[in-house]
Design brief:
By secondary structure, the chain is of the alpha/beta class. It is 40% helix and 15% strand. Strands 5-4-1-6-7-8 form a six-stranded parallel beta sheet, with helices on both faces.
Length: 233
């Protein structure tokens, strides 16, 4: 059976305001002058710890964990709701579900937050499961997350597609022999997605179903278990 795994931030919903404002809040509480909100868009998608270390200018685990706690202090109550689904997302999910495709969320965001967001926008009816990382950072790396999701749901990578807007989504999919479909409406560029191994790119959510059909009609793609570097995600 065909399965479609969707990233959350930058793919299903646009979290721009909630994430960047919560980052600014954490930095201010840490005594660091935050950059303009638009300069923090790189942090949408990748694991939070790496992004905060970059913004703080330190690799100190204690400092990073303190900043994460402050970020979540605002995000859990306010930032989580400064978010909205992309136009066309609900429709394509309904079409895929009606076609018998198994739908799941696979995100580097903590599961506890991911589930609240999916439920808030009534997208949960379409998904069989919502998978994210743990609050302690376990499975932040998308490759580790997919290594958990695939056997947990008995997925066949040859008939599974990972849809996401960042290079790490593409690399994780390729690492596990899945099809990698890049979402150009999110925060990763076409260049980033292609360099990370995207098999196809979609300009808008409405294009996803046709792109998936095109990928799954092809022969299995060679070299899909490459040991690719995770990079920024």
């Amino acid at each position: 059976m065909i399965a479609a795994l969707f990233d959350l931030d930058g793919t299903l919903t646009d979290p721009r305001e909630g994430i960047t404002r919560s980052l600014a809040y954490a930095l201010e509480r840490m005594g660091v002058e935050p950059p303009p909100l638009d300069d923090m868009l790189f942090a949408i998608g990748p694991p939070l710890r790496g992004s905060l270390a970059r913004l703080l200018g330190t690799e100190s685990p204690a400092a990073v964990e303190r900043a994460i706690a402050l970020y979540r202090e605002r995000f859990a109550d306010v930032g989580l709701f400064e978010n909205q689904p992309y136009e066309g997302v609900a429709e394509v999910l309904a079409e895929l579900a009606a076609s018998g495709t198994r739908l799941m969320v696979a995100t580097s965001k903590p599961t506890v937050f991911a589930r609240r967001i999916v439920e808030r926008f009534a997208l949960d009816a379409h998904f069989e499961a919502v998978h994210g990382c743990e609050l302690d950072g376990a499975r932040e790396d998308k490759r580790d997350l997919l290594a958990h999701v695939i056997p947990a749901h008995g997925l066949d990578p040859a008939t599974s597609v990972m849809i996401g807007d960042r290079g790490a989504d593409m690399r994780a999919a390729r690492h596990h022999g899945m099809h990698a479909l890049g979402a150009l409406w999110g925060y990763g560029s076409g260049e980033e997605l292609r360099q990370a191994g995207a098999h196809a790119l979609c300009a808008a959510p409405v294009d996803v179903r046709a792109a998936m059909a095109g990928l799954l009609d092809t022969d299995p793609l060679p070299g899909e278990r490459e040991d690719l570097t995770e990079g920024s995600r």
